[in-house]
Amino acid sequence: MKHHATASNTKLSSNLKMNGSVRVRVIRTLLAIQQGKSLATVLDPLLNSLHEGDKGFAHALLLTTLRHWHALARLLDSLADKPIDELEVRTTLQVGLAQLLYLEVADHAAIHETVEAAKEIEFARAAGLINAILRKVAKNPNKFRKKCDKNHSLPNWLAYQLKQDWSEQYTALTQGLRQPAPMFLRVNTAVSSVSAYHQLLTEADISSEKIALSSEIQLSKQHNATTTTQALRLEQSTSVSFLPEFSSGVVSVQDLHAQLAAPLIQLALNHKLKIDNGVDNQLHLLDACAAPGGKLAHWLELLTTDKSSLFHVKQSAADQQAKAEVSTIKLTAIDNEAQRITRIHENLQRLDLPLADDQADNKGIALNIVCDDATTWQRSQSKTDSAQNGFDVILLDSPCTATGVIRRHPDIGILRTEADVEQTVQLQAQILDNLWPQLKAGGYLLYVTCSILKQENSLQMQDFITRHNDATAIELTEACNWGIAQQIGRQCLPIDSESGDGFYYALLQKTVE
Question: Could you tell me which residue ranges the SAM-dependent MTase RsmB/NOP-type domain spans (predicted)?
């Protein structure tokens, strides 16, 4: 989803450039976000404009101000004698409040430098107001911090919807969204193991903890299938440059709950092959909306590891020649943004995984990456395709409002609007309706979002099954030690400081006619 600016009656007085003091640059970055720029596009320009010694403070100040943005805004309104309408002045004050309440910057430094920043951005006329408000807060920071922390720091429309969706978890959830997210690692099991890499981290004096997530799907009344996802959580986030063998592709940074996608779709694929009791010459797999490629890379790692077992099916001695012809996995990945597809290539190259040339590598995996719109894209069929055209399984990492990753992208709280939700729900439905006919009978579609809004998740799935009589929801059972069971699928919530992000998973099967 593209980011949208929050509607506001205030306007910027000028086109501000990235120069000036550290605080001025942070203020200008926040103003750019309020104009509709995403944090992902403005963070690097900010940090690259600074001396090395200033980068850590600038990063902390920017992220902290964003995490507490709406709470700071409400506190500011309660402190001002009359409404402050100028966006530059409000932003400068919120940066000052963040320093006093959350970063423990010395009072005199926070107040003086923030007032000087207002002068630098040509708002000297507000210097007295800014000085007075910040001095009032500095006299009793604990009181004002408690006031700021008492309620959520979300736009009111989003807080209201979360209360409707998650009444029991509401307080913990809205407070959890204000906290920094932990850093998780995914070990490339094609070349190493979680235990081996855990030892490497220990030797590098990086504290980490091994985590295992169990998943179980009920494939029939008689049969359940299980898998385990192993990950590492760092005690303290660090730069990837400090991670052993990162550049050689042994490990990737990926959220804990994002690491569930590839094992779940692999579990469904393995079961489909057992039921089929054999496969065609090629397996056809689809990763829709694949960029920036974290889940795609994980899936390729598992496919590389499991290649021999995928084609290990029961056959008689007379069928051994036929078995030898079962040799190729054709994995198609689509995304509609060329720049994000470049990220896929970069990730795959670092991990030494198959590049996109649609030719099978020495492991029998052919990857084809396509830049196209998932609402209209149609799979091209070659003469060698089987009579039963279509994909065996589809992984749909659906576009969403990304409300489940606000901890990592706190600009979402500024950029998202209530109207975005309805637009997103419609887009998701269009993609689902376009891809479903391209799934083989008996095939599986894994629907994934990083949203915590039921409209985009369980309610979307209920509506989809209502529209498609050949769609059946596969239960993710209570043996799963993650997420909250929904009428369809399971929902992960980012509630505590050790948990993964907010992800939703639902597995659908296409009825065999």
Answer: 173-511
Task: Report whether 292 belongs to an annotated binding site.
Answer: yes
Q: Which amino acid is at 489?
A: G
Secondary-structure class of domain 22-151 per CATH: mainly alpha
C-beta separation of 450 from 400 below 8 A? yes
Q: How far apart are CA 63 and CA 65, in angstroms?
A: 6
> What's 259-510's CATH class?
alpha beta
Would you list the domain boundaries of the chain?
Answer: 22-151, 259-510
Is 471 within any annotated ligand binding site? no
Q: Which of helix, strand or coil describes residue 226?
A: strand
How large is the average pLDDT for residues 46-56? 94
- pLDDT, tens only, 363-420: 688 899 999 999 999 987 654 555 457 999 999 999 999 999 999 999 999 999 999 9
Q: Which of 47, 22, 51 is nearest to 109 (CA)?
A: 22
Residue 209, strand partner residues: 233
Cα distance between residue 283 and residue 269, in whole Å? 10
Residues taking part in catalysis:
450
| pTM of this structure | 0.91
**Is 81 annotated to bind ligand?**
no
**What does the alpha-carbon distance between residue 274 and residue 271 come to, in Å, rounded to a whole number?**
5
| pLDDT, tens digit, 9 for 90 and up, residues 189-209 | 989 999 999 999 999 999 999
